[in-house]
Amino acid sequence: MNNNNKQELKLAASTRTPVSVRNWRTALEKWKDFMFALPAIALLAVFLYYPLVNSFYISLTNWNMTRPVKKFVGIDNYTYLLGHEDFYQSLKITFTYTIMDVVLTLAIGLLLALLFNVSSRFYAFMRGIVFMPYYISMVIAAMVFVWIYNGKYGLLNRVVAMFGIDPVEWLINPSTVLPALVVVSVWKGVGFAMILFIAGLRSIPADYYEAAAIDGANRWMLFRHITLPLLSPMTLFLVITTFISSMQVFQSIDIMTNGGPLNASNAVVYWIYTMAFSQFRTGRASALIMIFFVIILLLTALQWFISRKKVHYEG
Amino acid sequence: MRDSRMAGQKNSKVVSFIRVVLAVAVTLIILFPVYWMVVSSLKTQAEMRLAVPTLWPETFSWGNYAEAFRVIPYAKYFSNTLIMSIGLIILQLNVALWAAYAFAKGRFWGKEFLFLLVLAALIVPDQVTFIPVYVMMSKLGWLDTFWALIVPNGASAFGIFLLRQSFKSLNNDVLEAARVDGAGRFALIYRMLVPMAMPTIVTFIVLIFIAAWNSYFWPLIMTNSSDMRVLTIGIAFLRDSIAGDESLHFHIIMAASVMAILPIIVVYSLMQKHIVAAMANSTFK
What is the 3-state secondary structure (H, E, C) of A28-75? Predict the structure, then answer.
């Protein structure tokens, strides 16, 4: 009753108020709504968008963080990097690591999705365990693997010894260091890929399979011609997101190898970090950051582009 | 006819048995590194060096945990991590609640564009912005304080997106009725929207907590005194601070590691269902 009265009063009031006052009131309401978005926008402007532009500016200077002078040098930092072998070496390391990581994480993740896609409490429990490493700190995960890889007493060498193979310094040998890093990342990431692939599998209508089975398709044909194509949007999403996060590999390198041996694991982000905070070449590090960021933007654009064009969607 | 059906049933039983065996094996393999960390944390130094490693400690060497406490100011690191995590939860949650309300239910000029600007933040990794933010923090005198760990990460684009989705699905009539009754915006958000979107909010809080607890790059850049170290940094330093052959001290490092991930394991075990559901739903934006 009270409510109705109020509403009527308000209605009456609004019909009586002059237009200019009403406009002023809606403007005030809009302003109030905007004020609630403002903290988020201000934080992003100050701590994300301004630093982004500022990073670009710094990349055009010869700034060294320990000294006050900052001279504008144009594209010198970029030409230095592009003309330097270390740059291509670091990119090569990053991409080698990333491709191994993406392929293994997704391939194993898909196999696990097919294996674990059973609706029962026990399977849900096991999926929970497989997904758990995704939330374990990379520092701790890396530390456990440093222990497992330890040359003298580590488990891996003990196991390898049972097959009569001599101990290997997994993190000191240039040919094993990247695979050793990839294993940690795959261990942490397969559960996530599995969960998303299962979500994808469950969104495929069952009648597709039934219809094809009536037509005499065998299991492999069902997988090849129904499951894989209909999973492709999820696969694309996982490829790009895993690729982008994998390219940012830093923590495991900082804990396990420090970029070594002899820069064999000096991936881009780790190089940025040492360039900025050990060698204090702030300008040059910023140039590397910008190149790295452009690569990430291109990958994101690629995902956006392909997802609109090529990938099979239902219906 | 009947025979073949029975054979089929038998066959499918065999298949599901093989499947369970495989699934259990995979689960154990994935669990193994965590198991190995716990087991190693309880072994003596001598047992760590055996040529044939033991899968179960001969004696439980709880002293390793006391030793970890002695080597690093563990309680200090733990409370630093907790303060940072709680600070991030309070700030990110409130900023995201306000923004999600504005973007889901509000009307103002440039709303779509500003929301796009928020979403675009998802593409920018920490490594792109850390140098200017470091300089900014240093000018403000915030380096090596909780301010530098919390404030620059106050706006979570992911959280704003998540809460906005959830607010959008809520009925407008109830809100309108409340507004007509003279409820202000804060009352609308905290008394009406928050209770209705509770499952999403709980998930968001859990995800902020896990991300904060595990963060490494940001605290590594923004702090340098031992008083301000968080657990991830502390454990990296514990390893560096061990004199001599580090191969001999992994039982201590593992004990410290177990204590560092315990909160995550507990939170994850309790909230697992919510987290898995949120992850599976958050992909197709």
Answer: HHHHHHHHHHHHHHHHHHHHHHHHHHHHHHHCCECCCCCCCCCCECCC
